[in-house]
């Protein structure tokens, strides 16, 4: 299936329950530093919600739990690749998205034959401390020229207002976190995102 151009990331299945009914078709569940039982319950709940609302779920990092819970798509950062059993992931039929931040990481990402490659942070981000500065729109164009038909995800500091520039520079998908979760009206912001991103491809 083709991936939707709007790709929000949430840290709880509560967000999915709240916002998937608005029409989100692609979402990542990204939870850090929780007990395995909590993680499993959250992944299971997110899986069921995504099935109900016809949304593609991507599980960040926890590939073993994703396999065990019958999920079909995971996202791995570069550090996650060090620990992941890519053979087991592929044998289980999971699709794979990979983060990248520089040329060496892009080479590594391409070597594992991913189903998308993410580049970030495109703009400064408050989500987490990173050793990389902002990549800028020019880097998106460089990455797209290298990866060809593999979907390219722009992430980091993305807003509805910045999305058109990212698409024009070569991104196929724009990923967003705090522009929704810290917004005074997350529902309204999701509607703006859906209108902006799907309108881009009309």
DSSP helical segment count: 10
Can you give the mean pLDDT? 94
The CATH topology label is TIM Barrel
- Name of the top-level CATH class: Alpha Beta
**Helix and strand composition category:** alpha/beta
CATH-defined architecture: Alpha-Beta Barrel
- Share of residues in strands: 15-25%
- Distance between termini? 18 Å
Helix content: 40-55%
Order of helices and strands: EHEHEHEHHEHEHEHEHH
**What form results from the Cα inertia axes?**
globular
Give me the count of strands: 8
CATH superfamily: Aldolase class I
Note the main sheet. Answer: 8 strands, parallel, barrel
What's the structural domain tally? Answer: 1
Uncertain spans, ≥5 residues at pLDDT below 50?
none
Cα radius of gyration in angstroms: 16 Å
Strand order, largest beta sheet? 1-2-3-4-5-6-7-8
How would you describe this protein?
By secondary structure, the protein is α/β, with parallel strands linked by helices. It has a single domain (6-200), classed as TIM Barrel, CATH 3.20.20. The chain has helices at residues 13-19, 36-52, 63-68, 78-83, 86-91, 103-111, 136-147, 163-169, 178-181, 186-200, and strands spanning 6-10, 26-29, 56-60, 73-76, 95-100, 116-119, 152-154, 173-176. It has ten helices and eight strands. The two termini are 18 Å apart.
């Amino acid at each position: 299936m083709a991936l939707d151009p709007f790709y929000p990331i949430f840290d709880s299945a509560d967000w999915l329950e709240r916002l998937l009914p608005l029409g989100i078709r692609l979402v990542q569940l990204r939870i850090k530093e929780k007990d395995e039982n909590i993680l499993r319950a959250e992944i299971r709940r997110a899986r069921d919600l995504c099935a109900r609302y016809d949304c593609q779920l991507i599980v960040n990092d926890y590939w073993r739990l994703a396999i065990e819970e019958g999920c079909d798509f995971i996202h791995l950062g570069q550090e996650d690749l060090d620990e992941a059993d890519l053979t087991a992931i592929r044998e289980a039929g999971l699709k794979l998205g990979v983060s990248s931040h520089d040329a060496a990481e892009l080479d590594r990402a391409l070597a594992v034959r991913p189903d998308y490659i993410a580049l970030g942070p495109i703009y400064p981000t408050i989500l987490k401390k990173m050793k990389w500065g902002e990549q800028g729109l020019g880097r998106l164009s460089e990455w797209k020229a290298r990866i060809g038909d593999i979907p390219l995800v722009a992430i980091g500091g993305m807003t509805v207002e910045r999305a058109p520039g990212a698409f024009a520079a070569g991104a196929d998908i724009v990923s967003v976190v705090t522009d929704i979760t810290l917004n005074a009206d997350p529902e309204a912001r999701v509607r703006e995102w859906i209108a902006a991103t799907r309108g881009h491809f009309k």
